[in-house]
Specification:
- This protein is an alpha/beta fold.
- It has two domains: about 120 residues, Rossmann fold (3-Layer(aba) Sandwich), CATH 3.40.50.720; about 150 residues, Dihydrodipicolinate Reductase, domain 2, CATH 3.30.360.10.
- Helix content is about 35%, strand content about 30%.
- The protein contains nine helices and 15 strands.
- The protein has a nine-stranded mixed beta sheet. It has a six-stranded parallel beta sheet with strand order 3-2-1-4-5-6, with helices on both faces.
- α2 links the parallel β2 and β3.
- α5 packs antiparallel against α9.
- The radius of gyration is 20 Å and the shape is globular.
Length: about 325
């Protein structure tokens, strides 16, 4: 099975597909075979534009295609769990865009379906596979900063919210689900822990979803994370790890590309560390191939994804109640 080439199908014509198509087209173990849309005309037009061999006029038709091995689920947030489970039940492996679900019960349902049908399901946090992120994890966990005390993260950009699904409450809208999930995931994965308690504040927009969210996470051993995310603040995407002996700054945290630079400061000396990377979305594609063809565990397990969803829902609960929330995993 290690020599098999996996056929992929795109579940929707979402803009994010354009990031995944190039690595699928160059990978030796993966092949982009099909795309599905809600109409045959839309699917045909997209397939022609993106040079995809096969077009399906419904999502159901894509799942029924016997030649498709892997589904990339890039539907809106509120449809991720439903269609991931449908794909698994149809015998497909699934790479699902973040967030994989909007509550932990849905993550549990995905995990149960994946186990029952023997399929691989992973959440598409592309930065987690990049050499820069792995280097940050190595530096922090090796003690280069001394005792870790504080993590800071930001992810913001200006969004034209009128009619945008990212601000639709019925579709899992809000800056926390859209981009706040990144610093939360980053902090958790680098230190290998889940927070014990969270506290959040939100600034809501006209639709009632959070235009800005500011959160705090309390980890064991007196480690704290502060983060902010927003649709109404200028672009920022960075992480910072502060310890008793040094600070690590990552200016391009969530979308690192082939060559990036991180900065390790101890006292008055700052060391520039250059990381030779790779095409950003290639890692998650090859990780799926490793899991399906070689039997490796996906880098982002469903338990990992469940924890991230638990933290986000806890933060939203805190913002509504004005009280800290203890997280149960």
């Amino acid at each position: 099975m290690a020599d098999k080439v996996l056929n992929w199908g795109l579940l929707s014509t979402a803009r994010i597909n354009r990031a995944l198509i190039p690595p699928l087209q160059v990978s030796k173990r993966n092949h982009l075979l099909a795309v599905a849309s809600r109409t045959q005309e839309a699917a045909d037009n997209y397939a022609r534009e993106m040079k995809i061999p096969r077009a399906h006029g419904s999502y159901e038709a894509l799942l029924a295609d016997p030649e498709i091995d892997v589904i990339y689920n890039s539907l809106p947030n509120h449809l991720h769990a439903e269609w991931t489970i449908k794909a698994v039940e149809a015998g497909k492996h699934v790479l699902c865009e973040k967030p994989i679900a909007l509550n932990v019960d849905d993550v549990d349902a995905i995990k149960a379906a994946a186990r029952k049908h023997g399929r691989v399901v992973a959440e598409a946090f592309m930065y987690r596979h990049h050499p820069q992120t792995l280097k940050v994890q190595e530096l922090v966990q090796s003690g280069s900063l001394g005792t870790l005390r504080l993590i800071r993260g930001s992810f913001s950009y200006i969004l034209n919210g009128e009619g945008n699904i990212r601000v639709d409450p019925s579709m899992g809208g809000g800056s926390l689900w859209d981009v706040g999930c990144y610093p939360i995931s980053y902090a958790r994965s680098v230190i290998g822990q889940n927070p014990l308690e969270v506290f959040g504040w939100q600034v809501t927009g006209p639709t009632g979803t959070d235009d800005t969210f500011i959160g705090q996470l309390r980890f064991d051993h007196d480690v704290y994370t502060q983060f902010d995310c927003s649709f109404i603040m200028s672009f920022r995407a960075l992480m910072e790890f502060v310890g008793s002996e040094g600070m690590l700054s990552i200016p391009e945290s969530y979308k690192p590309y082939t060559n990036e630079t991180i900065y390790l400061t101890r006292g008055e000396k700052t060391e520039t560390i250059k990381v030779k990377g790779q095409e950003l979305y290639l890692g998650e594609v090859e990780d799926m191939a490793d899991a399906i063809l070689l039997g490796h565990d996906p880098r982002i397990s469903l338990d990992d994804s469940r924890a991230n969803v638990a933290v986000i829902t806890g933060l939203l609960e805190s913002a509504r109640s004005g009280k800290p929330v203890s997280i149960r995993y």
